[in-house]
Amino acid sequence: MAIKRDYYEVLGVARDATDEEIKKAFRKLAFKHHPDHNHDDGADERFKELNEAYQVLADTEKRSAYDRFGHAGIDGFSGRGFEGFGFNGVGSIFEDFYDFFSGVAGTTRQRQRRGADLHHKITITFEEAALGCKKDIKINRIERCSQCQGSGSKPGSQPGRCPTCNGSGRISRVQQGLFGRFTNVATCSHCLGEGAVITEPCSRCRETGREKKEHGIALEIPAGVDNNNEIRLNGQGDIGERGGPSGDLYAAINVLSHKLFRREGYDVLYELPVNFAQAALGAELEVPTLYGKEKLKIPAGSQAGKVFRLKSKGIPYLRRNGKGNQLVKLLLITPEKLDKKQRRLFQELAESFTSDKKGGSPE
Questions:
Q1: Could you give the CA distance from residue 34 to residue 46 in angstroms, rounded to a whole number?
Q2: Whose C-alpha in 42, 99, 236, 325 is 20 to 30 A from the C-alpha of 171?
Q3: Cβ neighbours for 124, distance < 8 A, ≥ 6 positions apart
């Protein structure tokens, strides 16, 4: 009776190897020694040995028993032995082997791939962000080949029957497992399940069926967007592979600053310059807004920094009804130059303030 090798030695890992290290080692060696890819004498037995070692070391209970008692602890492990051994016992590891064996794991699926998402940055003005607008943008994306219409074949030619699977798109293989033979039906790795292969490739796309092209899009920008908001356009990204769905386009918004307004949430802040006389005596002034000019009454005695509110003159709420407000903050302007008359009047005013401050004794 042949003596079994140490399972850690079989996989080429240390005894304290992590689960991920064991899985990685098994994948590498199983791919190398799989009978479908390695026709050397002994490859089948080597693959069975790898399979057996992996099933023990990948199972926490079996590995613990093996570490304590060696092969003797596994042969009678809970009366189960290697139940389900072969392809079924290794679970999801063989699902992962689809990537290596193009479907040898026992599935006949053909993988569709979703197209890549694209990103585009667009710069708009403060008013355009607040009120909404439409912008024509151009992007470079992968589309269906305009010459072969996505077939990958030279116009006028037809794909030929796949010689590997004879047009069925599938390959059936009979393999010898630890407990007998089993049939594995897999996607044909030559035609990828199509059943046909391209004999005369398209000169433009070189049989990929796709090409990169510039594409124009009319982008609707809703009212209320702000800096770094993204607008997603479903299906406007790269076209998918093998009939897969297209990716999406994400348009990132960059809003230019405004010379008069500043955004605070959905409110708009405007600083209104007033002089001493207007603040002291009161005034009615015109104030610019996003929707035109509005009259604002400044009460007598208003102080610098006082804030007035113009209701619903701000930015529209995004995805709901209503608007923010416009906040008008008084900015007191001190004159830098005075003529003789103005200086005299300010001096008289200053003296009157001084006189008022001194006051007089009551009679």
A1: 9
A2: 42
A3: 133, 135, 221, 253, 254, 255, 256
Q: Where are the beta strands (DSSP E) in the chain?
A: 118-124, 133-144, 160-161, 170-177, 180-187, 196-197, 210-221, 230-233, 249-255, 261-264, 267-274, 283-289, 292-298, 307-310, 326-332
Segment 40-56, tens digit of pLDDT:
767 778 888 888 889 89
Q: What are phi and psi of 165, to 5 degrees?
A: -105, 0
CB 270 within 8 A of CB 329: yes
> What gap in Å lies between CA 234 and CA 251, rounded to an integer?
11
Round to whole Å and give the CA distance between 8 and 6. Answer: 6
With tokens 């030559």, the residue in question is 190
For the chain, how many residues are written? 363
Using a 10 angstrom Cβ sphere, with 0-12 exposed, 13-18 middle and 19 or more buried, the burial of residue 74 is: buried
Burial 317-356 (b: 16+ CB within 10 A, else e): eeeeeebbbbbbebeeeeeeeeeeeeeeeeeeeeeeeeee
Q: What is the pLDDT of residues 51-84, one digit of tens each?
A: 888 989 988 888 888 887 777 766 555 434 333 3
Query: Hunting for tokens 């804030």 — which residue is that?
Result: 307
* pTM over the 0.70 mark: no
The answer to whether 311 touches 329, Cβ cutoff 8 Å, is: no
